[in-house]
What we know:
This protein has about 140 residues and is mainly α. It has helices at about 1-10, 10-45, 70-75, 80-115, 130-140; strands at about 55-60, 80.
Amino acid sequence: MLNEFKNFIAKGNVMDLAVGIIIGAAFTAIVGSLVSDLINPVIGLILGGVDFTNMFIVLKGNVPDGVGLQAARDAGAAVFAYGAFITAVINFLIIAFVVFLLVKAVNRLKDTAIRKAPAAPAAPAGPTELEVLIQIRDQLAKS
Length: 143
């Protein structure tokens, strides 16, 4: 059982998956910062400073007007936080687009590297079977 587990872990696919998850986690932080720190403020500016995250409807409980979503949740109110959902959808679309652009760029680099890779030198052409047989015949004729 232990040997089977070692063989499973040692397979290339498992190691590739582990590396992919680690890099994905690091990349998530970068893309998250890109979305929240750079893109969302621009979208908010274009939409006139609208912040979707604090858009909600109070379903049950008393919440004073003008408080944010977190304050309403802290007050124990049941809220329908449609703004947070809209923000999550926008973030997903932006992240998916950034990942698409990244994959497209990596594929372009791979294609360029493949095209620029020098062709492997061809092995020298050896004699054909017929030529070898003729040489053997000629050698036998000389003997």
